[in-house]
Model the fold of this input.
Amino acid sequence: MKIFLTGASGFVGSHLIESLTSGGHELVCHFRAPQTINIESHPNLAVWSGNLNDVEDLSKKLQGLDVVIHCAAEMKLWNSEKSLLETNVFMTKNILESSRRASIKQFIYMSDASIAKNPLGQNLHISESRALPSLQNFPYSHSKSQAEQWVLEAGDETFRTLSLRPATIWGRGDVVDQILGRAADLNKFGWFDQGDYLFSTCYIQNLCEAVNKSLLSDSNQESFFISDGPPMQFRQWMSMRLKVGHYKVPTLSIPRSFARPLARFTENGWKYLPLRGEPPLIREMVHLMAHPFSISIQKAKDQLGYEPSYTMEDGMLEVEKAT
Done:
């Protein structure tokens, strides 16, 4: 297939390039910084660094292609409501419009399982049938939820749309390598309630498998949770991930009941005082990481034929070899 990939320089996008090109697909990739990619090592890859919000220009670039895989997103959780809205919502709408004008056959959106996480209820073994909760107090998850709704509503019999909702994605180059590992080494990362709660995760190669299955699917206007399968204790998973990355494993733990008030306190400090950097704890991070959260992937199994191709141990070995 001929595929247009956004977010190609990001964690997910960079792994998708390897997976899709090895599968024989031809890619046109959008890079914010195209000089970061060695095109010669990818013979089936072309680079485009135009404006994703320019509907007319992008629709011309998409002519003759089959599929758009939209991974580009703003990931910043603190003080970024405006950029989250502009990038995750408005830009998605513009790319959808460009895709329609170019007669793209399929649009695959990289959503996030967190859009279904109810801050006021239980979140264990949830399925796609759950109504999406109100997440206006959590700007990142809220923006991804809004964007997914636009994607699914855009689908019709000539323009198939689907949304993948991976649980916390991990692997070489993930948020542990980018942020949490360094924080752990500086004793600035710890557990909530000792980390003893169930948590779903998604190894990056399992997510790549889900994307490849989606390319073969006739599903339209559907969303799919994607994970590594059965959940495990958050502390067990994160400790394994930190160890294979050669980071310190924390011993500090705070009660979950104290986490949200503490996060609000630190947010207010950074909001109203001339403090440098970002607050060490914010409410959206508590929402994403401090509570039990597990998802069902039965729908993805039934409709996409998805099965996790890597076990947790397989993934950890791959990360360790690359470290």
